[in-house]
Design goal:
Helix content: 25-40%
Low-confidence stretches: 1-32
Structural class: alpha+beta
Strand order of the largest sheet: 1-2-10-15-14-13
CATH topology of the largest domain: Peroxisomal Thiolase, Chain A, domain 1
Largest sheet: 6 strands, mixed
Bound molecules: oxa(dethia)-CoA
Oligomer: single chain
Number of domains: 2
Number of strands: 15
Mean pLDDT: 91
């Protein structure tokens, strides 16, 4: 069978001019910080069906780090973390574990739950913004550790990384250029946060989630999705040094410039717009109502962002899966780890529609309605 026959690849949906986001005059945007921070909505969504998730698995490191532990160690305000984020504890990788180790453990757990022969895997994609090394890619380390015969590459879209990798893997599968694609989201955030920074460190944790993609029916796959980027907001969430533009120096490291920096309050305001507006748009363009969606799996950044979206979009709480209280924000691992838990609990079954929404540094976002 010609793989393209049953894979539906539909181009962008046209919207009327009245749906176009309003353009701010350049001078006004420069003068007005709040305007620049507003979510720049895109009218485009895409469809990519004919792809299914054959198996899913996840790994969270063993070491539990509670809010109490961080409050005692770094003098964080008692109760602030829980009150402002909903996070109670997170997991930290062991000293000898890197991102590739977590990724491999997630993949092995997934393989153990399936009847897949690893030698059939013909593509490895790893979404991460905390690679083991700048070079080689974490995906190559995973490919080697799993003994796979497959091309391998990393994708960097921070907390939207899994959505970007899912859509990329799905394109390979839909075109027939991959029969079995291993797509992993993995991050070891504990190594890049400034330990005593209350505004970032307690929010993040370490984890990995993995899926295997293969050909499905024309109904399965990304019924409608949007990947987006707004580099103008890049400095809201970044690691300012350590790349080619500003290489590490002992002075910069001593000053903590290599750590993750986040303007949390402005990222928060941007995020609540991204989440509500892209979910609404994807559902609308898919002609699907909230009632038709079995489960909403949002990036686990802050319970108040999720609660806000539920309220605005009138999503009942039983349709939302959260685990951030137990593992915090695990960046690219966030969505696949949550989906794995939901799947294990029987909250996702073949044929169900699941709405996933990732957002984060770049700025980037990825919102997709996936039929299992
Ligand atoms: O994973 C990558 C993405 N990262 C995130 O999404 C993290 C986003 N940031 C946060 O989670 C939180 O900002 C922190 C936990 C880092 C800090 O929390 P906070 O200091 O308690 O600030 P906040 O989140 O309550 O407030 C952020 C802003 C505030 O605006 P101003 O006063 O700074 O101008 C709030 O008034 O967001 C405002 N805000 C809202 N705006 C519109 C709070 N709730 C809403 C709302 N609608 N529902």
């Amino acid at each position: 069978m010609n793989p393209l026959n049953s894979a539906t690849v539909e181009s962008a949906v046209e919207l009327s001019a009245s749906d176009e986001p309003e353009k701010q005059p350049e001078t006004q945007a420069q003068e007005s910080e709040p305007d620049r921070l507003l979510f720049k909505k895109s009218p485009r969504t895409c469809q990519l069906t004919g792809v299914r998730i054959r198996a899913i698995g996840a790994y969270v490191p063993l070491r539990v780090v509670t809010n109490g532990e961080l409050e005692a160690q770094y003098g964080f305000e008692a109760g602030w973390i829980k009150k402002r984020t909903g996070i109670l504890e997170r997991r930290y990788a062991a000293e000898e574990e890197g991102t590739s180790d977590l990724a491999v453990k997630a993949a092995r757990r997934m393989l153990a739950k399936s009847d897949v022969d690893p030698s059939d895997i013909d593509l490895v994609l790893v979404a991460t913004f905390t690679p083991d090394f700048t070079c080689p890619s974490t995906a190559c380390l995973v490919q080697e550790k799993l003994g796979l015969d497959a091309p391998a590459m990393d994708l960097q879209a921070a907390c939207s990384g899994f959505m970007y990798a899912l859509a990329t893997g799905a394109q390979f599968v839909a075109t027939g250029n991959s029969k079995l694609a291993l797509v992993i989201g993995a991050d070891v955030n504990s190594r890049i946060v400034q330990p005593d920074d209350q505004g970032t460190a307690p929010l993040f944790g370490d984890a990995a989630g993995a899926v295997l993609l293969e050909r499905g029916t024309t109904e399965q796959g990304l019924v409608r999705y949007q990947l987006g980027a707004d580099g103008a907001g890049g400095s809201l969430l970044d690691r300012p040094v350590g790349g080619t533009l500003r290489p590490l120096t002992p002075e910069l490291v001593a000053d903590g410039q290599h750590y993750l920096k986040m303007d949390g309050r402005n990222v928060f305001k941007w995020a609540i717009q991204v989440v509500t507006e892209t979910i609404e748009q994807v559902l609308m363009q898919a002609d699907v109502g909230v009632a038709d969606v079995k489960l909403f799996v949002l990036h686990q950044a802050n319970i108040r962002i999720i609660d806000h979206a539920m309220k605005v979009l009138q999503i009942p709480s039983e349709k939302v899966f959260n685990n951030l209280d137990r593992i915090g924000n695990t960046s690219a691992a966030s969505i696949p780890v949550a989906m794995d838990e939901a799947f294990e609990q029987g909250r996702i079954e073949p044929g169900d529609l699941v709405l996933m929404c990732g957002f984060g540094a770049g700025l980037t976002w990825g919102t997709g309605l996936f039929r299992w």
